[in-house]
Task: inverse folding
């Protein structure tokens, strides 16, 4: 019995990438987006060059385990502040998404910002959208190779400068600049400059919308934070459909909607979607389609807002802007807002009340207790003292908790700014003082000349039975 020949079919997991030739949009949302680009990049590139108290204002010194943020010096034991900061960022993102959709993605996300910069460079070197399409369809020539090479050289320069700046937050940037000029970079600095530069070059220059579509997890779970009153970029189908080209004689016919099917909203989209097909996870909320559509409406003398930031309920029920604002304070927004406010108050309150002095008391485990002259009991401790401020300071050490308890070797210590030192101390109690076994005692560290700067730590004093 003969069997029919088998057929093999190949099923692709996703459609092959189609090159997106984005048209540059113009309008108020585009201006706001570029304002965010300038603001974020001035902060990122400029912060490492700022000085504060003869040091780099923002500097994360992992080698010395010190983190400088302007006038604040943080240590590894201050990890709680990083945790609170991450919680603040998370809830701020949740709140922003609930209120205004993916506006973070479209205006301030680093992927969007650097993609915008790289596409601007591309348009300046290769020309407008139509010019870039013609250039790519042309066979290779000296002119085409020169344009492509120039674009990639500029892209690489921006990417490497970005990697250099990133490393400048962890290595003094002026020292790093000198090492680059002298070609004396160490392996660690070289690796991270190239790695971060390559990531910027690849993500913003080549992958672009693929990062937003397939790599970013935020695009996948954003819908869990949306509701019917979240502001999203939307197409007004009631007003726009049915689509049709503009009548060449005067205006559109009565049977047609406001959309003239010019496709400009698709041409300006950085992810290449058609917003007229409804909300899609690919939409990053950049509002480029809003600016493009508004410019078309202005040209044909129609009201703006065919594509606009609005809510699903507003489209269905024809809400006015005032009604949209009235529905802003809903339970989900209030919950996120209250949690965010509580964490922010806790974060800044703890920073303002933070004492720039730390002390840990560690018993000498080799010698729990020993008896010396005249029955005096002696315990040995190690005080780990950290001056978290930037000025040298002298501190007085005292101990209390048992009658007659006293230090025997030293009672004052001086530390330089941001210095941490282990200070061995010996504590004695006269014979007959204190109960047999463990006794609670308290070490107090007070700044000389400033009694308000003090910390206390509890410890135990052991009296042999």
Result:
């Amino acid at each position: 019995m003969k069997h029919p020949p088998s057929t093999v079919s190949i099923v692709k997991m996703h459609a092959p990438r189609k090159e997106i030739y984005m048209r540059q949009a113009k309008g108020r949302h585009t201006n706001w987006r570029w304002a965010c680009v300038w603001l974020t990049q001035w902060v990122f590139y400029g912060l490492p060059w700022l000085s504060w108290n003869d040091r780099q204002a923002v500097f994360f010194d992992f080698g010395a385990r010190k983190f400088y943020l302007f006038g604040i010096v943080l240590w590894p034991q201050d990890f709680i502040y990083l945790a609170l900061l991450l919680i603040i960022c998370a809830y701020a993102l949740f709140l922003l998404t609930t209120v205004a959709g993916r506006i973070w993605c479209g205006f301030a996300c680093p992927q969007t910002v650097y993609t915008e910069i790289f596409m601007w460079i591309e348009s300046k070197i290769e020309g407008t959208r139509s010019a870039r399409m013609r250039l790519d369809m042309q066979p290779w020539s000296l002119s085409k190779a020169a344009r492509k090479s120039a674009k990639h050289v500029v892209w690489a320069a921006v990417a490497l400068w970005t990697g250099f700046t990133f490393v400048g937050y962890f290595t003094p940037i002026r020292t790093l600049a000198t090492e680059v000029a002298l070609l004396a970079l160490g392996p660690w600095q070289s690796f991270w400059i190239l790695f971060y530069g390559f990531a910027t070059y690849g993500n913003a220059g080549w992958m672009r919308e693929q990062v937003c579509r397939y790599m970013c997890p935020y695009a996948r779970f954003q819908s869990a934070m949306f509701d019917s009153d979240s502001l999203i970029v939307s197409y007004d189908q009631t007003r726009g459909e049915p689509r049709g080209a503009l009548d060449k004689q005067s205006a559109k016919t009565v049977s047609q909607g406001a959309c003239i099917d010019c496709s400009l909203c698709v041409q300006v989209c950085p992810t290449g979607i058609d917003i007229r097909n409804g909300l899609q996870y690919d939409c990053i909320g950049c509002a480029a389609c809003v600016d493009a559509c508004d410019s078309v409406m202005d040209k044909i003398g129609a009201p703006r807002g065919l594509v606009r930031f609005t809510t699903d309920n507003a489209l269905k029920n024809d809400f006015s802007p005032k009604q949209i604002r009235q529905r802003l304070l809903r339970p989900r927004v209030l919950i996120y807002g209250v949690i965010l406010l509580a964490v922010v108050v806790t974060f800044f309150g703890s920073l303002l009340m933070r004492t720039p002095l730390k002390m840990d008391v560690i018993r000498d485990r080799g010698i729990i207790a020993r008896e010396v002259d005249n029955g005096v009991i002696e315990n040995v401790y190690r005080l780990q003292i950290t001056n978290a401020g930037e000025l040298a300071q002298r501190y007085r050490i005292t101990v209390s908790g048992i009658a007659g308890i006293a230090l025997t070797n030293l009672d004052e210590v001086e530390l330089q700014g941001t210095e941490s030192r282990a200070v061995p101390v010996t504590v004695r109690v006269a014979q007959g003082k204190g109960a047999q076994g463990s006794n609670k005692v308290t070490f107090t560290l007070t700044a000389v000349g400033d009694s308000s700067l003090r910390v206390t730590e509890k410890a135990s004093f052991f009296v042999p039975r």
